[in-house]
Amino acid sequence: MKLLATLVLIAAISGSALAQDPVSATAGVTYGTGATADNAVPATALSSKINNGQFTGKVTGKVTDVCQKMGCWMKLETGQGDPIMVKFKDYGFFMPKDIVGKEVVLDGEATVTETSVKQLKHYAKDAGKSKAEISKIKAPKRETVFVANGVLVL
Predict the structure, then answer these.
(1) CATH 2.60.40 at 29-153, yes or no
(2) Per-domain residue ranges of the chain
(3) Are 146 and 87 spatial neighbours (Cβ–Cβ below 8 Å)?
């Protein structure tokens, strides 16, 4: 009888440990403070939503590049040439290095800023670019930078 009760208890614990909450199974994986997809602006439309060089809210898009050293930045496709550079608030979290091609939702703030040559070379090195490619970087770049408080990887 004790053996039967023990087996039933083990089966119940195993079943509950393997069961998935259907909401979290479909919601993806979150980082930082997390994010939800409701009211997110497509990355392709972000430039039209930036007022006075700033946007606060949610953005969704496809990841085109991730820092291969630590996952400390990523880039989102805009469909208009230059991608959106994404950093993470206070380096509080990092992204997996294998999410290129995945859709994400960001929650935070975008600004239009000028990135220095030194910083551009640093990003290129983090991305695994060759010395020849890095040496071609000669001028600062005006770009959209998004500082994310939270990220949802779909």
Answers:
(1) no
(2) 29-153
(3) yes
pLDDT grade for 47, boundaries at 50, 70 and 90: confident
How many Å apart are CA 129 and CA 122, to the nearest integer? 10
Do the Cβ atoms of 98 and 147 come closer than 8 Å?
no
Half-sphere exposure of 44 (CA within 13 A, CB side): 3
The three-class DSSP label of residue 2 is: helix
Q: Which residues pair with 146 in a beta bridge?
A: 86, 110
Query: Percent helix, strand, coil in the chain (nearest 5)?
Result: 30, 35, 35
d(CA 41, CA 141): 24
List pLDDT tens digits, range 76-114: 999 887 899 999 999 999 999 999 999 999 999 999 989
Sign (positive or negative) of CA dihedral 12, 23, 90, 70: positive
d(CA 77, CA 103): 10
